[in-house]
Design brief:
There is one protein chain. With 532 residues, the protein is of the alpha/beta class. It is 34% helix and 18% strand. It has 17 helices and 19 strands. Strands 1, 2, 3, 4, 5, 6, 15, 18 and 19 form a nine-stranded mixed sheet that branches. Helix 9 packs across helix 14. The longest helix is centred in the C-terminal third of the chain and has 23 residues.
């Protein structure tokens, strides 16, 4: 039995803050159709990528050089072109391709899958899409596009698939919320009708983040129906619902559990509900975010690494249950200064986002009014326990995917996805394991068995890289990784040369230049004295 420590919340004056809004104000928006231009080309009847070192996403080691032949949007063949392999299988002969990418000395890996995406109407959608594509994210599971309806989200999905919008492939998982004019969302016997309606529209799954979807009876009614229909369920276990719906219970019906909620609570052995200060108010975000981290210091570690993991692995075997930690979105809680001064903000963060992230009781996730060294220390200890848990779960056969939850808490599109891969390495994943989580694991969780790996018959979602991501995942960032020349001069290694989504070739560096231009124009037109 591990001794558990109750960490009470100190800063009493914070309780007097006004109750925060329940959600960020989002307005309906529709993306402008992308025009073919220097950023994109294809798909091609035949596209040949020659002489690449291939990291196939399955966990296998890099190998090559190999030639990758793509017909329209499907990988046709991988032909080894090294001398030893050619002596065994012979020369494939001349391939007549409509475009040839000479990847000699370069690396190719699958496109990255981000399993936790929000598109916000605070900034242009084009800006968000290009940040993602430019940093190699080819597929996202999105929970909202501004305040679009499920039907509107499905229409965006169709336009992306038809190459009318320049964006990552979209899986649509709308929020399940209580709507006063439709009580079915809160009634177990009526909820399945909504699920069937969404399925008929083309919705891929459901995102739950609070009541009423996490009432046990409503949750079961929804998940029984989604299993019948082949839909997914992503769950952010809200603190208001974590008893009795902890992570073990949620995993029995969910495809994924988001963030870190519900795991520590599932380990309790001498209590059932987290110990909280008597004047705690869930609706006050500084208090909520502190306590949802501090609960890990009340966990029973032997139960957490024993019975809890055992139960989660049963669900993994039953229906591919997957953990989506999103460690990146809470990093500010353990090191606020690092989060708010990231060097890439200067070129890639629009002023509107920098403004959104400043402490403000009206903005979700902007709760750092009095975030102290003690708060950060609590969250640092929490991260050590959380990361050890994620690593142990993976080592015992569990599935862990990559999700970034961008737009909130100093977390920018694309950058957050790459940082999440880094944090998996920080937790103990080796580079091949981390890339596997960012590619094939996400595809398996989505139920797409032609995505996330480089294999004949698979969809052509690929990254052509000028540097080795297994050596340093930072080379995938838009601003690259800093290297020093022999003379001491700093250079930036920006590895993502091409992002290929569904056979369409995107010039990643041109997309990122477009973003930098947007930011420059926005700063130039910002009022004097505003945050830039």
């Amino acid at each position: 039995m591990v001794t558990r420590t109750f960490i009470p919340r100190r800063n009493g004056y914070l309780f007097s803050l006004c109750i925060l809004c329940a959600a960020v104000l989002l307005a309906s928006s529709c993306a402008a159709l992308a025009q073919a231009g220097p950023e994109q080309s294809g798909p091609y009847p035949m596209l040949l990528i020659k002489s690449a070192i291939v990291i196939d996403g399955t966990g296998a080691p890099a190998k090559g050089p190999q030639d990758i032949l793509i017909k329209n949007n499907v990988i046709v063949s991988l032909t080894p072109s090294d001398p030893i392999s050619r002596s065994r299988v012979g020369d494939a002969g001349t391939i007549h391709a409509d475009r040839v990418i000479d990847a000699q000395g370069m690396y190719v890996m699958p496109g990255i899958i981000d399993m936790h995406m929000h598109y916000l109407d605070l900034v242009p959608l084009d800006y968000q899409y290009k940040l993602l594509l430019g940093q190699g994210i080819t597929t996202v599971r999105a929970f909202n596009i501004g305040n679009d309806t499920p039907q509107q989200m499905v229409e965006v999905k169709k336009q992306i698939a038809a190459n009318k919008i320049m964006a990552p492939r979209l899986y649509v998982y709308p929020f399940w919320r209580a709507y006063p004019n439709d009580p079915r969302y809160s009634i177990a016997k009526d909820a399945p009708a909504i699920v069937r309606e969404w399925k008929a529209m083309g919705v891929d799954g459901i995102k739950m983040a609070s009541l009423p979807g996490e009432y046990p009876d409503v949750f079961k009614a929804i998940t029984d129906t989604t299993k019948q229909l082949g839909m997914g369920v992503a769950v952010h276990i809200a603190q208001e619902a974590v008893y009795p719906m902890n992570a073990v219970r949620i995993a029995q019906g969910a495809s994924t559990v988001e963030h870190h909620y519900g795991y520590a609570e599932a380990s309790f052995t001498d209590q059932t509900i987290q110990q909280l200060p008597p004047n705690y108010n869930y609706s006050i975000e500084p208090e909520r975010f502190y306590e949802t981290g501090a609960v890990w210091l009340q966990a029973n570690l032997s139960t957490l690494h024993g019975k809890v993991i055992d139960e989660l692995l049963k669900q993994k075997d039953d229906h591919n249950f997957t953990m989506v930690p999103t460690m990146v979105v809470y990093e500010a809680n353990r090191d606020l200064l690092r989060a708010e001064t990231r060097p890439f903000f200067a070129q890639y963060a629009l002023p509107r986002m920098m403004e959104q992230w400043q402490p403000n009781p009206h903005n979700h996730g902007s709760y750092f009014y009095h975030w102290t060294s003690e708060d950060e220390a609590t969250w640092s200890r929490m991260y050590r326990r959380w990361m050890d848990f994620v690593e142990d779960y993976k080592n015992r056969g569990g599935l862990v995917a990559v999700g970034s939850d961008p737009g909130f808490i100093f977390n920018l599109w694309g950058f957050g996805t790459i940082r999440e891969i880094e944090l998996l390495e920080d937790a103990g994943f080796n580079p091949l394991e981390a890339i596997h989580s960012a590619t094939e694991v996400g595809a398996l969780s989505l139920g797409n068995h032609q995505l996330g790996a480089i294999r004949p018959g698979y969809t052509a979602d690929l990254l052509v890289l000028t540097a080795n991501p297994l050596d340093d995942i930072k080379v995938l960032y838009a601003n690259g990784a800093t290297r020093q020349t022999a003379t001491g001069e700093a250079t930036q290694v920006k590895a993502v040369k091409y992002t290929i989504r569904d056979g369409v070739v995107f010039d990643s560096q041109q997309l990122l230049k477009d973003v930098r231009d947007m930011v420059s124009r926005a700063k130039a037109s910002a009022p004097a004295g505003s945050i830039k």
